[in-house]
């Protein structure tokens, strides 16, 4: 069955020729242009997005959408396409790390007000009617309590929220010590959102056409970082003394910075007490990143692993060019215990691989 025909059937009685067709046709054309075959889960999600777009533009009540599934199955591709095709100016597309960093920052600034969350959302989401929230996950009980208040506030404002996540709602905050305290949010998601699984037997990020448009995928993974490899890529020296770099109100360590290029060691960014807001501020100043000395993550504390995961998330979402230098093959380095490492591995697998040069044959 042709993709547009299947989408039209799934739209059913909610179909509106004017309002939902723009979403369905956009995705059909986008998939065709990029050489993708839409999975059944993607097609159901497109039908749901088209249906809710029709309701929104007609002034009717909407149900928010929660898309979940394994890494690389096209959830962010769907979210970005929906955001692009939605014929509405009052919309925002945000990433989990970016949004929560700014949410915490805003609530601190408004801490003297009776409703610090409401005042912060007034600033962050002024006039917003549709919020596209990418890479949603919850592992920290502090964030979990804030998310509970956040979701209630968004729904009270009548906002259409589109969420993507690697986790089904019942898989959020998996720590058994805290999961039950998050149950009210899971129930709220079930009551106010359509939960749709986006699955496919293939990781779309592994396809050649996924590499055509991103600066991130033009980057490299280099191991073991020999002098010859570094010279071939014209990389700056990172083994020298650290330099102090002012980032916001903090001082971080780096090894080199010039124009829009910045170089760090893994220890500079992940073994020090850095935070997501640091990475976001650095992304405003630098487009080309060099991170040297990726170890075996399994040998690192969980907090160090999580900083690296957060860093890769930010660099990927901001589409920065990355050269990552490791001591061993990438798959060996990425073995670890942190929960979201599968997403990190999927993203880093898109980097071009620079392997060690083979040794010359021995002279007989």
UniProtKB/TrEMBL annotation:
The keyword Metal-binding does not apply. Keywords: ATP-binding, Cell cycle, Cell division, Nucleotide-binding. The keyword Cell cycle applies. One of its GO terms (biological process) is cell division. Pfam families: AFG1_ATPase. NCBIfam families: ZapE (NF040713). PANTHER family: AFG1-LIKE ATPASE, ATPASE N2B. This is Cell division protein ZapE. It comes from Pseudomonas quebecensis. The lineage of its organism: Bacteria, Pseudomonadati, Pseudomonadota, Gammaproteobacteria, Pseudomonadales. The gene is zapE.
